[in-house]
Specification:
single chain; alpha+beta; Dipeptide-binding Protein, domain 1; Dipeptide-binding Protein, domain 3; 3 domains; 6-stranded mixed sheet; 5-stranded mixed sheet; 18 helices; 19 strands; 34% helix; globular
C-alpha cells in the first residue's frame, strides 16, 4: 500500500519541460490568485473503510491505508511539496530552499528557513520547534513505515530549532536526494504545543538511559570477547596446519566460546527488553486522543455526517483556496456500488487504491509500473549494443497503444537531449536503420531483410549462425499486455532474421529466471520506478547480476563513477547532471529497452482538472481535491 500511495503523491519525481534544473523551481503557489470557478462541495466515492486513528498511527504501518490517506493527507504542513502535473519541488512551509549539506563535526548538517506567516488552526504560530519536535519524536519512538521513510534513523540523528524560524537537521551520514529532498523535507509536521504534553505517559514507556547504557556495554563486551575468540581460533588453526596442538590454547578457546555464548545471550535479552518497551510506547502513542488537534493544511477535518466524512477548506491557508468549500467522502465497499453512485449523480469522483476499471473511466494516465525488454547481461551474444539498438529501432513508439515507457518518466529528471534510436523515422526507415546497426557490428545474412521481407540466415560477426533464443514473458492470465508485447517483439526479431521463440510463464518463474537462476536469454520484465531515479544504478539490485551487468563492469567506468556520486549527492542540480549522464549511457548501450507503462483509469463527472492525465492517475492523488474545478 505504501508504494501505491506515496510513490504517486509525495514520492513523484520533480518535473519540468526543459533540461535546466527545474527541480529547484521557485514558483510557489500564488495566495492571491482568484479561482476560475467555485462550488459548495466536491463529492468523492471512496472505496475502502477509513478508521478513527491519530496522526502517529496514520503514517505507521497499522494505520496506513488508502482510505485513511485520501481523507487526511492534507491536514498537516510540510516544508516542501511536489505540485502536479509536473511535480516540481517547491517550498511550502519553508522560505526558499535548504542550505547545502555540509560536514559538522562528526555529523553532517543543513538548515531550512521557515515562513513566518503560518498559523495553526488554534492561531498559534508555526515554528521550528514544531519541526524539531515531530522529527525527534518519530526517531525516539522508532516509528516505522512512512515515518521511517520521512525520518530514517540510519541517516537522521536529530533536529534542532536554531530560532523560531530556522531549523537545523543533523545526519549521521551524508544524505542523498532520496533521503533529504524526497524524505525529510516532505514529511508531515505536527504541532508541538498540542502533542508534547499529551504523549508524556507514552514517552515514559520508552527505554531509559540505564537500559541504553547496559546495551552499549553489552555490545562492547561482546565485541571484546568475539575478538579474543577470533584470535584464539586463528592460533588453533595455525597449529593444526602445522600438525601441532596446544592444549592450553584449545582450553582457553573453549572457555572463551562459552563466554561468547553468554555475551550473545545477555545482549539478546537486553535487546528483547528494549523491543518490548518500544512497542509498548508506540501502542500508547497511537492511543493518545487527538480530539481538536490543530492542523495546518489545505483542508481541515469537520465532522462525520451520516456515514460520510467531510473536510472543509482551510480559509486561512496562505497558498490559495480550493475551488470547493467542502470535500465530502461517501464510503463504498466495492467498485460496482461506487460506479452506480457515480452514474446516479450521487458522487463526483471515484477513488480507489488501484484505479477504476476501464469500462467506467473517462481519464487514463501512465503509472510507475513499467515494462522493459531485458537482455541477459551474462550472455556474450546478447550483450552486443548494436543488436539492442536494432531491436529498439523496430519498436514503433507511435504504434504502441500503451503509454511509452522511459528510463525516467518525469521531465525534471529526463534528459531531453538523448532519445531512442530511430525516433521520428518511418517504418521503412526504421528497418533500414536497424539493418545498418547490425551490419556495422559485422552481422550478415544469407538473405538480407527489407521493409517487406524478413531476413534469413543471420550470422554473428564471427561467422557463426545466430543461435536460437527464447523470450520469457508472463501468461495472458497474469498480464495480457506483457504477453501481447512478447509476440510483437518476436515478430520484430524474426523480421531481422533473429531466431526467437516466446515462452509464457508465471510471474514467480519469470522473477526466478532473471534474479536467481540467470538461465534466460531475454525477458519482458517489470519494475516500479521510484520517485527519485536512483534506480538507474540499481536495476538488478546489489548482487551478482549487478556486478556482471556490462553497464556496471569495468567497461563502464563513467557510469560507475556517476552512480557512486549519485548515491551520496544532496544537491539537486548536481544530481540532475549525474542522472542526465547516466541516461545518456543507458540510451547508448540499451542494456534493456523500455517498452510501455501500465495504465490506470479514473472516473469523474461534474468536475474538471487542469490536466488531461497525470502520472499515477487521480486516485494516486486522492482525487486531487485542491486542484479540482467545478465543471463549466
Amino acid at each position: 500500500m505504501r508504494r501505491i500511495i506515496l510513490t504517486l503523491l509525495i514520492g513523484l519525481i520533480l518535473a519540468s519541460c526543459a533540461p535546466q534544473p527545474a527541480s529547484v523551481s521557485t514558483n510557489t503557489p500564488n495566495p492571491t490568485a482568484l479561482p476560475p470557478a467555485h462550488a459548495p462541495e466536491i463529492r468523492f466515492g471512496l472505496i475502502g473503510e477509513p478508521t478513527h486513528i491519530n496522526v502517529w498511527q496514520l503514517f505507521d504501518e497499522s494505520g496506513a491505508s488508502y482510505a485513511n490517506y485520501a481523507i487526511r493527507f492534507e491536514y498537516w504542513p510540510r516544508l516542501y511539496h511536489l505540485t502536479p502535473p509536473e511535480f516540481n519541488f517547491q517550498p511550502l512551509a519553508a522560505e526558499g530552499f535548504p542550505s547545502a549539506v555540509s560536514q559538522d563535526g562528526e555529523l553532517y548538517s543543513a538548515t531550512v528557513k521557515l515562513r513566518s506567516d503560518l498559523k495553526w488552526a488554534d492561531e498559534k504560530p508555526f515554528t521550528a520547534e514544531d519541526v524539531a519536535f515531530t522529527a525527534n519524536t518519530s526517531l525516539k519512538y522508532e516509528l516505522g513505515y512512512d515515518w521511517a521513510s520521512y525520518y530514517p534513523k540510519d541517516f537522521l540523528d536529530h533536529v534542532e530549532a536554531i530560532d523560531s524560524f530556522t531549523v537545523k537537521f543533523y545526519f549521521k551520514q551524508k544524505p542523498n536526494i532520496g533521503v533529504w529532498q524526497y524524505g525529510v523535507l516532505q514529511a508531515p509536521i505536527l504541532q508541538k504545543a498540542f502533542w508534547e504534553s499529551r504523549i508524556q505517559e507514552s514517552y515514559l514507556l520508552l527505554p531509559d538511559e540505564i537500559l541504553t547504557k547496559e546495551i552499549e556495554d553489552a555490545n562492547i563486551y561482546l565485541g571484546n570477547v568475539q575478538a579474543r575468540v577470533d584470535d584464539l581460533t586463528a592460533q588453533v588453526n595455525a597449529l593444526f596446519l602445522e600438525g601441532k596442538e596446544n592444549k592450553s590454547i584449545s582450553g582457553d578457546l573453549a572457555k572463551r566460546q562459552e563466554e561468547l555464548n553468554y555475551a550473545k545471550n545477555s545482549l539478546n535479552k537486553l535487546l528483547e527488553e528494549r523491543a518490548v518497551k518500544i512497542i509498548s510506547a508506540q501502542q500508547a502513542l497511537y492511543a493518545v486522543d487527538d480530539s481538536d488537534e490543530p492542523t495546518l493544511g489545505t483542508w481541515v477535518p469537520a465532522v462525520e455526517e451520516n456515514g460520510k466524512w467531510v473536510n472543509e477548506a482551510n480559509l486561512d491557508f496562505p497558498f490559495g483556496q480550493p475551488n470547493f468549500d467542502r470535500a465530502v467522502y461517501s464510503i463504498f465497499e466495492d467498485q460496482a456500488s461506487a460506479v452506480i453512485a457515480l452514474e446516479n449523480d450521487e458522487v463526483d469522483v471515484l477513488l480507489s487504491p488501484n484505479g477504476i476499471e476501464q469500462s467506467s473511466s473517462n481519464m487514463t494516465s501512465p503509472t510507475r509500473s513499467n515494462r522493459f525488454l531485458v537482455f541477459n547481461p551474462n550472455d556474450l551474444v546478447l550483450s552486443e549494443i548494436n543488436l539492442h539498438q536494432a531491436l529498439s529501432c523496430l519498436i514503433d513508439r507511435n504504434e504502441i497503444s500503451l503509454y511509452q515507457a522511459e528510463f525516467v518518466q518525469s521531465s525534471a529528471w529526463n534528459n531531453v537531449n538523448v532519445s531512442f534510436p530511430c525516433v521520428g523515422l518511418s517504418k521503412e526507415q526504421r528497418i533500414e536503420k536497424a539493418i545498418e546497426f547490425l551490419k556495422d557490428a559485422g552481422y550478415s545474412w544469407a538473405q538480407e531483410p527489407t521493409s517487406s521481407q524478413a531476413g534469413v540466415g543471420l550470422k554473428l560477426p564471427n561467422g557463426e549462425d545466430f543461435p536460437r533464443i527464447t523470450l520469457l514473458s508472463t501468461l495472458e492470465a497474469v498480464d495480457v499486455n506483457r504477453a501481447s508485447m512478447a509476440k510483437v517483439v518476436e515478430q520484430q526479431a524474426l523480421h531481422l532474421g533473429i531466431p526467437m521463440d516466446v515462452e509464457l510463464t508465471d510471474l514467480a518463474s519469470l522473477h526466478y529466471a532473471v534474479y536467481s537462476s540467470e538461465k534466460y536469454d531475454l525477458a519482458i520484465f517489470g519494475w516500479r520506478l521510484s520517485e527519485y531515479p536512483s534506480y538507474l544504478c540499481e536495476w538488478f539490485g546489489s548482487g551478482k547480476q549487478f556486478e556482471n551487468n556490462p553497464l556496471y563492469g569495468d567497461n563502464s567506468s563513467r557510469l560507475k563513477s556517476k552512480c557512486e556520486a549519485l548515491a551520496v549527492e544532496s544537491n539537486l542540480e548536481k544530481a540532475q547532471e549525474n542522472v542526465f549522464e547516466i541516461q545518456s549511457v543507458l540510451m547508448e548501450e540499451l542494456p534493456f529497452i523500455p517498452l510501455y507503462s501500465d495504465i490506470t483509469y479514473d472516473a469523474f463527472r461534474n468536475v474538471q482538472y487542469p490536466f488531461e492525465s497525470v502520472l499515477g492517475g487521480l486516485s494516486g492523488l486522492y482525487g486531487a481535491p485542491s486542484y479540482a474545478l467545478p465543471a463549466k
